[in-house]
Amino acid sequence: MKLFIYTNPQKPNAARLLSELSDTAMRRGIETEPYSSDVMLAGEPKEKWLGVTAVVTIGGDGTILRAVSAAAPHDVPVLGVNMGRVGFFSEIGTEDFGAALDKLQSGDYSVESASMLTCLVNGENSGVCLNDFIIHRQELSSIAHLGLAVDGDDVGDVMADGLIVATPSGSTAYTMSAGGPVVAPKLDCMLVTPICPHSLTVRPIVASADSTVAVRAKSDCRLTRDGQDVCVIRPGDELVFNRAEGAAKFIRFGKRNVFGLIREKLK
User: Fold this and answer.
1) Mean pLDDT over residues 211-221, rounded?
2) How far is the C-alpha of 18 from the C-alpha of 57, rounded, in Å?
3) Domains of the chain, with CATH numbers?
4) pLDDT in tens, 157-173
């Protein structure tokens, strides 16, 4: 068995935990390779991913989001070890790592898939996200002015602090804070949610997962992908959001109750 272990070096004690978890795996005869940069992880050639059972992340949800974008193209699942405050995507705490390795070696686990989104900006690929793409206003004193269409049907102009295009996984992130719905895990859809809208003409939208969401910028904005800055958006730019071809995958040791997680993590 082989594991990639990816840690967020900004987290306190991350280096120590990386060493401890690697030693725990080594005592079980498991090969590990450490990474402290998502760029290095994503840059590994395809052949190096062959035979990798999982990417183990040490950190919070942000660490997992970065690891997923690197692992998904290679169909490798992620096992999240939580060091963050919330940890919606994490499966275990550091104290459970040894038991988790035993289950991995015995095959006592399942792999959960989660849909992802892709975004084209003026026809150019801007990557994939697990949670959300967000179009933000450029300046604090300004608003985002965006033309919105779903499957070719004009929805109208959005005047707001921004616009979120999210997956079901992202429904418990910024979308939920912006007033969007929490989506049951088995529902396959795409969420479009204005952030602090300046009018009530465009409300949160739940569209089919196979829909195409098109946005025409009418003001200067910024685009982010799972919290990472992507690019500046200028008036006239066209953004097109679709379901990504690949899916994120997670190691699970039991059934997850997303509603219970919300109660527990956000109380």
Assistant:
1) 97
2) 9
3) 2-108 (3.40.50.10330), 116-245 (2.60.200.30)
4) 999 999 999 999 999 88
Which amino acid, 111? Answer: V
- Beta strand pairing status for 124-129 and 110-121? antiparallel
Instruction: List CB contacts of 255: < 8 A, sequence separation 6 or more.
Output: none
Question: Which of 1-15, 32-46, 91-105, 110-124 has the largest mean confidence?
Answer: 110-124
Judge contact between 261 and 89, C-beta under 8 A: no
Give CA–CA dist 30/78, Å, rounded.
16
Cα separation, 193 vs 165, whole angstroms: 7
Q: Which two tokens stand for residue 63?
A: 């660490």
In this structure, are residues 85 and 91 in contact, taking their beta carbons and an 8 Å threshold? no
Residues with a known catalytic role: 61
**Inter-residue contact 80 to 250 (CB < 8 Å):** yes
The whole-angstrom separation of Cα 148 and Cα 156 is: 6
| Model confidence pLDDT, tens digit, residues 110-145 | 999 999 999 999 999 999 999 999 999 988 778 999
**CA–CA distance from 251 to each of 31, 72, 134, 173, 174 (Å)?**
18, 13, 27, 20, 24
Task: Specify the DSSP class assigned to residue 130.
Answer: S
Mean pLDDT of 39-44: 87
